[in-house]
Design brief:
Blueprint (H helix, E strand, L loop, with lengths): L2 H11 L3 E4 L5 H13 L3 E5 L2 H7 L9 E3 L7 H12 L6 H10 L1 H10 L5 E3 L6 H12 L9 E7 L10 E5 L9 H19 L4 E5 L10 H16 L4 E6 L1 H5 L1 H7 L11 E3 L3 H14 L3 E8 L5 E2 L7 H18 L1
Parallel strand pairs: 1-2, 1-4, 2-3, 4-11, 6-9, 7-8, 7-9
Antiparallel strand pairs: 5-6, 5-10
Helix pairs in contact: 1-13, 2-13, 4-5, 5-6, 6-7, 8-9
Length: about 325
Amino acid sequence: MSFIDDIKARARKNIKTIVLPEAEDRRVLEAAATTLKEGNAKIILIGNKADIDKLGEGLDLSGATIVNPKECDKLQAYIDKLVELRSKKGMTPELAEQALTTDYTTFAVMMVKMGDADGVVSGACHSTANTLRPCLQILKTAPGNKSASAFFLMIVPNCEYGEDGVFVFGDCGLNQNPDPEQLAEIASQSAKSFELLTGKKARVAMLSHSSKGSAKHDDVTKVVEATRIAKETYPDIELDGELQLDAAIVPSVGASKAPDSKVAGKANVLIFPDLDAGNIGYKLVQRLAKAEAYGPVMQGIAAPVNDLSRGCFAEDIVGVVAITAVQAAANN
């Protein structure tokens, strides 16, 4: 059984309801049909039924619930709640109605907030900002988290590194240039996400272009400080840094560059120093190593709302839906 098949099997043990607000995209409808056929989750599609039926011709979407925001009998309750949450930011009933009936991701996130769904997957045809903004505004961070971050679950074929080719890469989707405190929290969140999804112990490497003082620069200092904070704040995490990528995952290099480290050469969670490095890193591995890349998956949020790459395939969406369901089950 492949790793993502194992995730799907776990999702089927505790069925959750996932909202897909981009029903105007054929890939999303294909993913919905596959998810329903496999029984990985219940699916809510946001949009006009006639339009969905036309675009989804040939697909079995009979098991999906289709919700048109303009005709939803809970719209007024959603408007009232959104005004309550955002009134200090100038939200009025008129603006709330406009947001909920025109921005389907906002409507989907509100369904989660109101307990009518367990998670959201979006981003196939919208920007990351469009997916994450309502998530951060409406759901906010989970207790104990100061900020949110995003990771990619990477599954690299025929790979001896990481956890038999399975890695979590963070942050590859949200925080542009995290400071040391944020980087330490990203490390903690990513370790928890790795252990939730794999059931294996996380070994976290704080990545840099330097290994244990081999280079001097403010960027290196940031990672060194983040490592110190993480070790003090999250002592139960197996974590080390600063480490170059090869020192983090290749046993022989780790033994040479960081001989006293328990993580070097064995890392399965890679924390990048900034969003440029993270985004470039995951895409290099995805394209050159032909790895499966699921995400950006949000962490540190009160409920699971996950993003997609606009270059994703339907099977990628199926995988992220299953991951979202597993996250939702863990929230119970």
